[in-house]
UniProtKB/TrEMBL annotation:
Keywords: Cytoplasm, Gluconeogenesis, Glycolysis, Isomerase. GO terms for biological process: gluconeogenesis; glyceraldehyde-3-phosphate biosynthetic process; glycerol catabolic process; glycolytic process. It is an enzyme of class 5 (isomerase). Transmembrane segments: none annotated. Pathway: Carbohydrate biosynthesis; gluconeogenesis; Carbohydrate degradation; glycolysis; D-glyceraldehyde 3-phosphate from glycerone phosphate: step 1/1. It is found in: Cytoplasm. The lineage of its organism: Bacteria, Candidatus Roizmaniibacteriota. It holds the Pfam family TIM. It catalyses: D-glyceraldehyde 3-phosphate = dihydroxyacetone phosphate. This is Triosephosphate isomerase.
Length: 217
C-alpha cells in the first residue's frame, strides 16, 4: 500500500478550506486510489468541517489532526487534546519540524504525545529529521530533511532512504514516508528509492497537484 498525506498546515480560512474541500472531494471521487491510502490533515478547527464534507460527498480518504497536546485533559488553555479529536480523525501527525521549532518540543514531549495517541487509538504519523528512539504503536515515520521543507528543493531520494534506514533501526513502524518539497514530478523517485509514501505540504494546497502526486505513487 502506498500512502499520501496532505498537510494543509495553517494556510486556509473557513471559506478557502470549503472551496478546497469541495474541489478535492470531486476530483478524489473521479480518481483511481486502489491500493493507496490518502490522508488529509487540516487545522484542528476545520476537522469537523472536513469530516462533514467528506461524508456528504461519500468519499473514503482518511483524516488526520496536525498535532495533539502532550496533556490528556485539564487546566491547559489553548491545548487540543487527543480525546477532543477522536470523533473527527483517526490519524495524527506528531513531531513535525515546524511544531518542534515553534513549540520547542523535545523527545520526551513527543513520546508523551505518542503515548496519548496510542491510548486513544489514534494512528501516529511521526516526523523526524534524524535517528531518534521512540516507543509505541506507530503507523508511519516521515523523514523530513529540514533544508527541503517548503523550499521547493527536495532532498536526494537515495540518500534520504539511507537516512531512513538508520531511523528504522530505532523506530518500528508500518510505513516509512518522505516529506519535503514533494511534487508530482519527483514522487516516483522517492517510491523507487524505497519509501512507501509521502507527506505533502505546499503542493497539497492544490487538489489537482496533490492527486497527481497520489496518481504517481
Amino acid at each position: 500500500m502506498k500512502i499520501a498525506v496532505a498537510n494543509l498546515k495553517a494556510e486556509f480560512n473557513e471559506i478557502e478550506i470549503k472551496v478546497w474541500s469541495q474541489a478535492f472531494n470531486k476530483e478524489y471521487s473521479q480518481s483511481s486510489t486502489a491500493d493507496k491510502k490518502v490522508i488529509v490533515a487540516p487545522p484542528a478547527i476545520f476537522l469537523e468541517l472536513i469530516k462533514s464534507s467528506q461524508e456528504q460527498a461519500r468519499v473514503d480518504y482518511e483524516i488526520a489532526a496536525q498535532d495533539i497536546s502532550q496533556f490528556e485533559k485539564g487546566t491547559y488553555t489553548g491545548e487540543i487534546t487527543a480525546p477532543m479529536i477522536t470523533a473527527f480523525a483517526r490519524y495524527v501527525i506528531i513531531g513535525h519540524s515546524e511544531q518542534r521549532r515553534i513549540s520547542r518540543e523535545n523527545q520526551a514531549v513527543i513520546q508523551q504525545k505518542i503515548d496519548l495517541a496510542n491510548q486513544y487509538n489514534l494512528q501516529v504519523i511521526l516526523c523526524v529529521e534524524k535517528p531518534e528512539s521512540y516507543q509505541g504503536r506507530i503507523f508511519a515515520v516521515a523523514y523530513e530533511p529540514k533544508a527541503a521543507i517548503s523550499t521547493g528543493a527536495a532532498a536526494d531520494p537515495t540518500s534520504s532512504w539511507e537516512t531512513m534506514a538508520s531511523i528504522a533501526k530505532l523506530i518500528q513502524a508500518e510505513h516509512y514516508l518522505y516529506g519535503g518539497s514533494v511534487n508530482s514530478g519527483n514522487v516516483a523517485a522517492f517510491i523507487a528509492a524505497g519509501f512507501s509514501g509521502v507527506l505533502v505540504g505546499k503542493k497539497s494546497l492544490d487538489p489537482s497537484e496533490f492527486l497527481a502526486i497520489v496518481a504517481n505513487l
